[in-house]
Amino acid sequence: MLDKNFLWGTATASYQCEGGWNEGGRVPSLWDEYLHKNNLENGDNASDHYHRYKEDIRLMKEGGHKAYRFSLAWPRIIKNREGDVNQEGIQFYHNIIDECLKNGIEPFVTLFHWDLPQYWEDKGGWAEREVCDAFVRYAQVCFEEYGNKVTFWSTFNEPRYYVFSGYKIGNYPPGVDDTQKTIQASFYMMLANALTVRLFREMKMDGQIGIVHSYAPIFGVDNSLETKIAMRKADNYFNNWILDTAIKGEIPIDMLSILNEKYDLCFMKVEDFEAIKQNTVDFVGLNYYARALIKPYTDGETILRINNKGKEAKGSSKVVVKGWFEQVFDNPDSTYTEWDTEIYPQGLYEGIMQAYKKYGIPIYITENGVAFYEDVSGEKSVDDQGRIHFLNAHIDAILRAIEDGADVLGYFIWSTMDLYSWKNGHEKRYGLVGIDFENNFERKPKSSFYWYKKVCESNGATI
Length: 463
Ligand code: BG6
Description:
This is beta-glucosidase. The protein has 463 residues and is an alpha/beta fold. The protein has a single domain, classed as Glycosidases (TIM Barrel). The chain has 15 helices and 15 strands. The chain has helices spanning 14-17, 30-37, 49-62, 74-77, 87-102, 118-121, 129-146, 159-169, 179-202, 225-248, 253-262, 270-278, 345-359, 385-403, 447-457, and strands at 7-11, 67-71, 106-112, 152-157, 208-215, 218-220, 283-288, 292-296, 303-305, 318-321, 325-327, 363-367, 408-414, 433-436, 442-445. The strands form three sheets. The protein has an eight-stranded parallel beta barrel with strand order 1-2-3-4-5-7-12-13, surrounded by six helices. A five-stranded mixed sheet has the order 6-8-11-10-9. α3 (49-62) packs parallel to α5 (87-102) and α7 (129-146) runs parallel beside α9. The longest helix has 24 residues, at 179-202. The site of 6-O-phosphono-beta-D-glucopyranose has 14 residues, from loops. Residues 13, 16, 157-158, 161, 214, 287, 367, 371, 414, 421-422, 424, 428 line the site of 6-O-phosphono-beta-D-glucopyranose.
């Protein structure tokens, strides 16, 4: 039997759902600047959660949710590099948190889900130490304001995805391919994580603090030694530099020594390593969409190509890390979404078991979901049986892992409602609640919403 306190919920992120991008004193984030400048589909209005959060939280309650994972927008809370606080922004999140608590929903709060204020991006963004220090000051404001209401805090959502996409793949802002900056930004985010955990302890906060990782459990194409070596390198690339660093306080030494041959690591100071060692997280959030199936590197330059276009680019994803490994995106035995994401629930079971054996701390599955093209314009709600099937199989994987001893304490579906998907726009729909973006953002719960209500209310017994 599942613990009665298991947190069943759904998740969003500020930039992806709020809208109101220039309201209530919010200043631009790097996403506003980048998407506007490049004339790309943006989240100016997103799902209009900024104006409709009460309705959304009421729907969560109706849907049986025990928890809601969302992020605070730094550009709503801190106005400038001097650290001046925007009271209207502060109040907005008080309203959300209070509304959750009033409805018996546990707020599960992320401090940073990628919307860095543009005023810090102008100073070099996460590749600079100054931003790391500013993040800790921002965290302090949030802890002081909301600390007596919020139990579950996460420092970062998916540092790996953010850093690699922005600084190496170049498909997210700042849109560059610069390995030195990739290393710096990765390090400073992990340092900021440790310094924020230290602050959390110094402030004697009630509650728990963790980090959320884009988890790609590593699988090999065969059992050869070459594949095993490639798998280790892929594990460092995808997972270890976040998880080992945040949970064990150790940056993988084999990775540092390879990087040290070609790049300048002098910016890492002895006291930074000490801070990382001493300030580890209480729990880990794992976002699971797919495993990484790995084969040994063959030849050619590094290619990191992710399909952000959907069906018109299906099959175009390619990941080759020169000298390290290659990722397989065309396994004939697998099915893939229109965005090249493999559907592989067993990867979640095995990933949880591996992570729990290795780290032994509580795990929350902080995101899991599947995207489809869906027409929500009609009178009838979307009958998303494909999503129900997907979610059912993944929850089943979690329940099996718990039965086999893993300490998984919560599960959040991505996403609460349809929202803006980074670079993919609004047509990549993940929500349990459909949003009719063309028709006054009307909320239209899909079949999966009613299915999940039963799962939450029966504490997983209907799986
Ligand atoms: C996670 C992020 O990487 O995956 C979310 O935390 C994101 O913000 C989700 O939206 C799905 O990715 P995408 O690119 O399909 O929106």
